[in-house]
């Protein structure tokens, strides 16, 4: 899997690149210090994933993300200092596939790059909640979803992506029993028989994108 790393801080850029390059299935094909360099390198190398810092000179990560996702199949994984940074939401609107905090563990970084490259979305609970509010997911999905609480709506979106209870619990930072309770309520309120029907429900209403885990 080919990856381009973009960050205006050389230590961070080189560190992330070295970590990814050490993996047998990842190949760092470029390193960029600003958004313009990133866009140019992506156009030439056509990587599966671009690991992109939000704040960069010349062209920021948001505009670079917009150009990359509009012109090719490269998926963008955003790097940010703050989990609820307003720039993260702008980047997701621009087409980013997820975000990571810069203090992420080495294992999580590698896992995230692989998941995004394979088509998954990586959205923390705070981002999911804001997307629900900002994009009117509940209204777009119809009257049924209006019966759900914000947290239940988050659970529904993750169910729609095929997440297991354990994965949902880890993402929302809650216990397994809490997730099980939320899932039961979601299914009951929407009149769904099982998790498979929840996935179908999300696809039919455009809440998840085909090909996204």
TrEMBL record:
Tell me which SUPFAM superfamilies the record gives: C-terminal effector domain of the bipartite response regulators, CheY-like
Q: Which domain of life is it from?
A: Bacteria
Annotated Response regulatory domain residues = 2-117
Question: What residue stretches are annotated with the HTH luxR-type domain?
Answer: 141-206
Which terms are listed as keywords in the entry? DNA-binding, Phosphoprotein, Transcription, Transcription regulation
**What SMART domains does UniProt report for this protein, alphabetically?**
HTH_LUXR, REC
Which InterPro entries does this entry report, sorted A to Z? CheY-like_superfamily, NreC/VraR/RcsB-like_REC, Sig_transdc_resp-reg_C-effctor, Sig_transdc_resp-reg_receiver, Tscrpt_reg_LuxR_C, WalR-like
Question: What are the GO MF terms of this UniProt record?
Answer: DNA binding
Give any single GO term for biological process: phosphorelay signal transduction system
Task: According to the UniProt record, list the residues that bear 4-aspartylphosphate.
Answer: 53
PANTHER family recorded for this chain?
TRANSCRIPTIONAL REGULATORY PROTEIN NARL-RELATED, TWO-COMPONENT RESPONSE REGULATOR
Q: What name does the UniProt record give this protein?
A: DNA-binding response regulator
Organism of origin:
Nocardioides mangrovicus
């Amino acid at each position: 899997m080919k990856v381009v790393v973009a960050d205006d801080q050389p230590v961070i850029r080189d560190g992330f690149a070295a970590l990814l390059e050490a993996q047998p299935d990842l190949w760092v094909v470029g390193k960029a210090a600003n958004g313009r360099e990133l866009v140019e390198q992506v156009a030439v190398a056509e990587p599966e994933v671009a690991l992109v810092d939000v704040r960069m000179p010349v062209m920021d990560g948001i505009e670079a993300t917009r150009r990359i996702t509009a012109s090719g199949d490269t998926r963008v994984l955003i790097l940010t200092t703050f989990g609820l940074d307003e720039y993260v939401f702008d980047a997701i609107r621009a087409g980013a596939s997820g975000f990571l905090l810069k203090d992420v563990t080495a294992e999580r970084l590698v896992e995230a790059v692989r998941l995004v490259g394979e088509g998954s979305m990586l959205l923390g609970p705070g981002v999911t909640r804001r997307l629900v509010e900002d994009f009117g997911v509940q209204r777009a999905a119809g009257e049924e979803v209006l019966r759900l609480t914000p947290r239940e709506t988050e659970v529904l979106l993750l169910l729609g992506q095929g997440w297991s209870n354990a994965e949902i619990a880890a993402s929302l930072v809650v216990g397994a029993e809490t997730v099980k309770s939320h899932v039961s309520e979601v299914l009951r309120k929407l009149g769904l028989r099982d998790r498979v029907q929840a996935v179908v429900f999300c696809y039919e209403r455009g809440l998840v994108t085909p090909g996204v885990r």
